[in-house]
Write a structure and sequence with these properties.
Keywords: Membrane, Transmembrane, Transmembrane helix. Its main location: membrane. It is a multi-pass membrane protein. It is found in: Membrane. With about 200 residues, the chain is mostly helical. Helix content is about 80%, strand content about 0%. The protein contains seven helices and no strands.
C-alpha cells in the first residue's frame, strides 16, 4: 500500500533525478540529445517505410493505382494484417538475442543477471508495453495510410503535447503560471499548424 505522501515523494524524486543540482546540466544535455536522436530515428524509420512502399509499388507498376497492386504486395504493407505479426516476431527475436548477449557479458564479468522484477512488471509493465504497442501500431497505420509528410509531424506533435501535459499535471515540473501559459500557447500554436499542414496535404 502506498499513501499520498509517498506518491508525492516519488514524483519529487523523479523530478530531482532529472533536475538535481549534481550534474543537472549534463543530465539535461544527455536527455535533450536522447530526445533529438529519438525523434530523428523515429522519422527515419517512417521515411524508410514510405520509400520502401513507393519502390515496391513502382516495381509492380501500380504506384498510381494501389488497388491494382497484387494481393501479396498489398498484404506486405497491411498494418492491420501480416505487418504487425512480422513486427512482433522480429521484436521478440531481437529482445531474446539482446538478453542472451547481455547475460553473456554479465557472466564474463562475473556479475549476476539483474533481477527481472516480475511482480512489478506484471501490472504496470504490461500496461506500459500495451500502450507502446498500440502507439506503434497507430503510428504505422497513420504513415502507411496518410503518408510521411503529414502523419509523422502529427504523431510527433501529439507525443510532444501529451508528454508536456503529463509533466505539467502529474509531475509538476513547471509551476510558474507565466511558463505554463507560454507552454499552453506554444502547444496550441503547434497543433493549429499541424491541422493547417494536413489541410494543405488534402488540397494538394
Amino acid at each position: 500500500h502506498v499513501n499520498a505522501d509517498e506518491v508525492q515523494g516519488l514524483r519529487n524524486e523523479d523530478v530531482a533525478v532529472g533536475l538535481g543540482e549534481g550534474g543537472s546540466r549534463l543530465q539535461l544535455f544527455v536527455g535533450f540529445l536522447s530526445a533529438v536522436n529519438a525523434g530523428l530515428f523515429s522519422a527515419l524509420q517512417f521515411a524508410c517505410v514510405t520509400v520502401g512502399k513507393r519502390w515496391e509499388y513502382q516495381a509492380a507498376g501500380c504506384e498510381n493505382d494501389p488497388e491494382a497492386c497484387p494481393a501479396k504486395l498489398k498484404e506486405q504493407f497491411n498494418n492491420f494484417g501480416s505487418w504487425m505479426g512480422s513486427f512482433g516476431l522480429g521484436a521478440g527475436l531481437v529482445t531474446l538475442v539482446l538478453c542472451v548477449l547481455f547475460s553473456a557479458v554479465e557472466r564474463r564479468q562475473k556479475r549476476s543477471f539483474p533481477d527481472m522484477h516480475f511482480r512489478l512488471m506484471l501490472f504496470p509493465g504490461n500496461i506500459a508495453g500495451f500502450c507502446w504497442v498500440l502507439g506503434n501500431f497507430f503510428q504505422l497505420a497513420a504513415v502507411v495510410q496518410g503518408g510521411n509528410s503529414v502523419m509523422v509531424p502529427a504523431n510527433q506533435t501529439v507525443q510532444l503535447i501529451t508528454a508536456g501535459v503529463w509533466g505539467l499535471l502529474y509531475f509538476g515540473e513547471v509551476t510558474s503560471p507565466l511558463r505554463i501559459a507560454s507552454w499552453s500557447f506554444a502547444a496550441l500554436w503547434t497543433l493549429i499548424f499541424i491541422i493547417l499542414l494536413s489541410k494543405e496535404r488534402i488540397s494538394s
